[in-house]
């Protein structure tokens, strides 16, 4: 048994070395790369890949299919990061534009992984999202200082994994009693980042990568002006993970809705943007309008009325105190990152979306949402779930109170700091609470909250006890 295990480990290490060498030689190493490759930080990165990435790869090979494909991309991303770490030791620190060009190979691999989760939803969607989102942790290499708009490298790795943990937990829950290979893959993926990559960054790059003072200069992206008479270039693609422009928090976006209206009124020039209506523009004088309403116009009017009934999507801070997230459909990357303990979050009418609240807030309310996922850090007062259907809520910090009212289907994920939360349910069904296991193996213990009760009149009052099912725990209470 031990001999087979050693053979498998040796084979995995050989594959990693071959792929890593292939990825490095693909672009060519600068002079002196052999000496740099023996640097302690590079050797430690090889050990990280041999210990943690090989474990993820081994579990993926047993599963096959798309899980193996996305794991190969993950291996490619780590190989590219090793190549960049070697080049950093021989390259002078570039400007922001040069840094974006320098990190372009890593960004392309990460975008390739994220593309696998787009389009038609796969049976392994949670695997693809978990692996793709986790690669954002590799962006720690772009940290250039406290003014770069990023968290410190160690914190960035932890935040990057939190983006993926929501989907990784889904894999653990779905396959824990079905297929141990999927469970092993999910556990190995988590340990790759926590503690694997986090401890590596903490030991070698706690303040970010160290560029060479006397090395070569990083090349910037060449800018070519179009020749005279040439058509205008196409619009730029979506911003990449390593953009040369610093990211802005949600609160710095232009005001929308009624806040924008009041801002326009306060300027004193309210009628500046209005156009004058001429005689031929009046309805009674227009020849292109008749009293007959076509079927196409009826359909257009009905569709516009249905849109106005649901309302436009919103993600904004109102009056500086309340975050409003409304009518978001199919959005998996909603983030509120600039919040404080005096603000509340109200989520309404969202469907098939995921919202991350990165920070402590006062109160969270989730109202009339379907297939909605919410991940939050800490809440001061309570997290309320009302009139929802098939929602998943994960608390990564502390929450004193969680209430579920008139909801069908709710999965609550509690952290170790939130196990003392008071959970109140009313007119709800299919409420499951998942708590971390006592050990550190990443397992979750699932507990279903009772929804049926027996009332017995005894000693002058009614005693109420939950209905106990075979194989489950008995919950007892009184009213």
Features:
single chain, 479 residues, alpha/beta, Serine Threonine Protein Phosphatase 5, Tetratricopeptide repeat, Pectate Lyase C-like, 2 domains, twelve-stranded mixed β-sheet, two-stranded antiparallel sheet, 11 helices, 14 strands, 38% helix, disordered C terminus
Question: Overview of this structure, please?
Answer:
It is a single chain. The protein is α/β, with parallel strands linked by helices and 479 residues long. It folds into 2 domains: 33-216, Alpha Horseshoe (Serine Threonine Protein Phosphatase 5, Tetratricopeptide repeat), CATH 1.25.40; 314-466, Pectate Lyase C-like (3 Solenoid), CATH 2.160.20. Helices cover 38% and strands 21% of the residues. It has 11 helices and 14 strands. Strands 1, 2, 3, 4, 5, 6, 7, 8, 9, 10, 11 and 12 form a 12-stranded mixed beta sheet that branches. It has a two-stranded antiparallel ribbon with strand order 13-14. Helix 1 (2-27) packs across helix 3 (40-63). The longest helix is centred in the N-terminal third of the chain and has 26 residues, at 2-27. The relative contact order is 0.07. Residues 18-31, 234-239, 243-253, 299-308 and 471-479 have low confidence and may be disordered. Residues 312-449 form the C-CAP/cofactor C-like domain. GO terms for molecular function: actin binding; adenylate cyclase binding. Pfam families: CAP_C (PF08603), CAP_N (PF21938), CAP_N-CM (PF01213).
SSE order and pairing:
Blueprint: H1 2-27, H2 33-37, H3 40-63, H4 65-88, H5 96-102, H6 104-115, H7 125-134, H8 153-175, H9 180-204, H10 258-266, H11 295-310, E1 314-318, E2 322-326, E3 334-336, E4 344-348, E5 351-367, E6 370-386, E7 389-395, E8 401-405, E9 408-414, E10 422-426, E11 429-436, E12 444-448, E13 453-458, E14 461-466
Parallel strand pairs: 2-4, 3-5, 4-5, 5-6, 6-7, 6-8, 7-9, 8-10, 9-11
Antiparallel strand pairs: 1-2, 11-12, 13-14
